[in-house]
Amino acid sequence: MSAATRSDLAVKLAGGAIYGTDLDLPGMRWAALVPSPVAHGRVRSVDLAPARRLPGVVAIGAEDLPSLLPGSGDADRPIFPTREVLYRNQPLAAVAASTLPEARRAAAAVRVDIEPLPAVIDLESVFPDWPGAEADRSPHVIAHVHARHGEIEAAFRSADRVVEETYRTASVHQVALEPHACVASVTGDRWYVRTSTQTPFGIREDVASLLGVPEERVVVDGTWVGGGFGGKGSSLLEPFALLLSRAADRPVRLALDYRQEFELGRTTLPAVIRLATAVRGARIVGRRVRLLLDVGSSLPGRDFATGYSIGFLLGPYRTDAFEVEGYGVRTNKPPFGPHRAPFAPQCAFAVESHLAEVARSVGVDPDAFRADHLWHEGDSTALGQRVGPFGLPSALEQARATAARWRAERPPGRGVGIGMGFWSTGTGAGGEVRLVLTPTELRIVQGEREIGSGSVLRGLVVVAERALGIPSDRVRVEYLSTAEAPYDSGVFGSRTVGALGRAILEASASLGATLAERLGEAGPVRLELTGGELIAVARSVRRPVRELLSPGELSVGLVANGRHFADPRKIDDSRVVTGSFYPYTDFTGAAHVAEVSVDRETGAVRVERYAAFHDAGAVVDPGTARASVEGGIAMGLGIALTEEALWSDDGRFLNAHLLDYRIPTLGEVPVPDVTFVEGFPGAGPFGAKGLGEPPIIPVPAAIAAAIRDASGAHVTELPISAERVARALKLL
Amino acid sequence: MTAASADLTVNGRRASFTALPDDERLLDTLRWRLGLKGTKEGCRTGDCGACTVLVDGRSTLSCLTLTREVEDAAITTIDLGAGDREVDRVRAAFAAAGALQCGYCTPGFVIALAGLLKERGRSLSLDEILDSLQGNLCRCTGYAAIARAAALAREAAP
Ligand code: FES
Ligand code: FES
Predict the structure, then answer these.
(1) Cβ atoms of residues B95 and B52 within 8 Å
(2) What mean pLDDT do residues A557-574 have?
(3) Quick one: which atom of ligand 1 is closest to the CA of B44?
(4) What are the C-alpha distances in Å from A154 to residues A160, A281, A319, A321, A354?
(5) Is B130 an 8 Å CB contact of chain A?
(6) Chain A residues within an 8 Å CB radius of B19
């Protein structure tokens, strides 16, 4: 099976796939947002009159909301700020006109009066020293997480050596090639929006709560998605487009240009990570981990990132005694947003680089040192969860063999390094699917859209194919709007195959049971294809599906439903002092090997060779699995080497341009060797584990290790730009 | 901004406009006047390649091209259907290599590669081809599958 069997090839290669940016509706108006000119300020007035005087312009601001909305919306999350502006470009009003240039002119005509207030942009300016007890009273701290276990003070007191380091990581943007775009059409009490999204039901819920409209009146329909990577996981433009449509009584299109995509996108923001490790002999006896995470203008109570991220600073290593503490710190930037494996690559970079330094300080090979402390099945995580089947130790073993070979072969000036990362398949809230069997095909009826990874149009299809033995070209995915589709919580967290796939399994089992009963034979049932007709087969009995369906089923199909909602998992609460930490569903991971050359004059790094060893549980579709790893590595190289959103002191996104925010290009990404280590099943269908996010996680760590090996430069800041390497080598 | 009438030849068809603003970009004319949405809009600043079309057989960024400048040229876009041998060969190579994920960069890559092969065919080495595709960004595939597709397309070229 190869990725070549993806069913979207034909439409995408013909230019016929409709994305969010391609949407139009008859009679639609074009919209633009009115951005805040300051990063922080008090709103004095937003005067829409000059815009409204322009022909054909409809303009809406905070004052218009009561007349446009049936309910009162979410008071904590106003659509337009009425008192305080929290970040530059925050929308203050929205306009619609007959053409895009006219809409832009109208937006520019709006007179905005804001009293500037001091803006906090740089995370480290909030707490020049590390936050102490006063932090909990700081208006900038919206999340505080703290956990501990074991005799941590004693461990540090009795250590032979304590290594302490500080790491810094940059703000990175998803850079899906397709910027955000949607069309909305409000008619009567039906609030319809079509948008490029990873979470149609998430948008429905979000829009309903923001606008105070009952959920069942909001209809969200998806499109092909031109890359998501976390950036299209929650509502951004939809509420504005809907309100404008209501006000204009016409369909409205709202889309970002790429500059706005950078400026308004929800990015992963900078962080400072402090790690202290106590060793006795060659053994880690205690770890202290501290995190300051910039959460931008995220609202109190809406920070998921701090507690979620910090787990990645503790694993995947055994830790008898530890203390971990993190703060989510508010700044005047857009709210923090998830970026493929939110913050895990950054954490892995810090942990892996740090433990290698710890190993060196006690004269032990860094790879052997990490191997000695790695989780194995049956170990306990820092927060007291039992580690399930876990292939990372095997992956590391294979990675070490490859690294040894590459080291033996490498030309002078090159370095080889290993980085690791772990992950746990996401569940989301859960989801449902409907299978519909006709005499000639099986339809998977559901509400998600294919975001590109293949998890929907390959992953779900392969699960049905294997469960029912049906040829995959007889399985079709049907994409419905939230009004018609069964609920699912979204394509994120590497959950599609692992969680929604289990709903497919359940539906397949129920379909199989119905067919077995009608065949009068005990299961399992297979669906074979003969002369264009599906034949149900159980042991020696074979009958065409056509003969097994009732007249009613012959017209609408035989329907079977399946659902999978998250099984609650627990961490050991006695170790938590405060805040929310997140339990794992399963344990997956990867070891990557990088070979780089480092220019001894400029510090420029070139990636020469790359190999990835992944535990993905049982791989359900080798072609898409490999493609996910190849793509994840490239994104990881961006985080490692070039990508950094630069914010000025007054909150401007300085490099909001693809020329200055540099993602890897074709010549900069080597074709990697990809290997799957099998035999470590996860909770997904057939033992699958999620694979959307894991490939990006080990990359910055592997690159940093290779750079260290090639040049001796120990860079503790992402991205590892030529300049930072040169500085570490004292060339600058 | 002045607007006068204009004619354009796209995928072998002639289109006439009565009032076309002088500063209108080819990308917008294709997508919003002709409804040819296969050509994708990414950055609009010439940095991503998603909007690549052929102008008299040469790979061109339609976001940086004024429609007026190409009135006398033959424009080819991904929407042209089947029948162009080079475009079809490149499509077949992309399908065989599974060289797309979200597909947003795909029209740009297909057209750029077809343009290269039209112009130079197999006289180009694979490295030269990959070098010429550096201006096309892809965020999903890591380029590995695209490089495999380029190799297949080159082999199939005359
Ligand atoms: S849209 Fe033309 S190069 Fe990006
Ligand atoms: S396939 Fe998504 S950008 Fe290339």
Answers:
(1) no
(2) 90
(3) 1
(4) 12, 16, 14, 9, 22
(5) yes
(6) none
In this complex, is the C-beta atom of B146 within 8 Å of any C-beta atom belonging to chain A?
Answer: yes
Calculate mean pLDDT across residues B143-151: 97
Which is the CATH superfamily of the domain at B3-80? Beta-grasp domain (3.10.20.30)
CA distance A444 to chain B (A): 20
DSSP per residue, chain B? --EEEEEEEETTEEEEEEEEETT-BHHHIIIIIS--TTSPPS-SSSSS-TTEEEETTEEEEGGGSBGGGGTTSEEE-GGG-S--HHHHHHHHHHHHHT--SS-SSHHHHHHHHHHHHHHHGGGS-HHHHHHHGGGS--SSSTTHHHHHHHHHHHHH--
ipTM: 0.98
Residue range A157-169: average pLDDT?
A: 97
pLDDT digits (tens, 9 = 90+) for A364-411: 999 999 999 999 999 999 999 999 999 999 999 999 999 999 999 999
How confident is the model at residue A125, as a pLDDT?
Answer: 93
Superfamily of domain B85-156: [2Fe-2S]-binding domain (1.10.150.120)
pLDDT tens digit sequence for A666-688: 999 999 999 999 999 998 999 99
Domain A19-117+180-255 -> CATH class: alpha beta
Per residue in A482-496, pLDDT tens? 999 999 989 888 888
Token representation of residue A468 = 């029912």
- Distance from the alpha carbon of residue A345 to the mean position of ligand 2, in angstroms: 21
Q: Which residues of B touch A453 (CB under 8 A)?
A: 101, 140
Q: Which helix (H) or strand (E) holds A529?
A: strand A526-530
Longest CA span, chain A: 81
As a whole number, the mean pLDDT across chain A is: 95
Q: Which amino acid is it at A533?
A: E
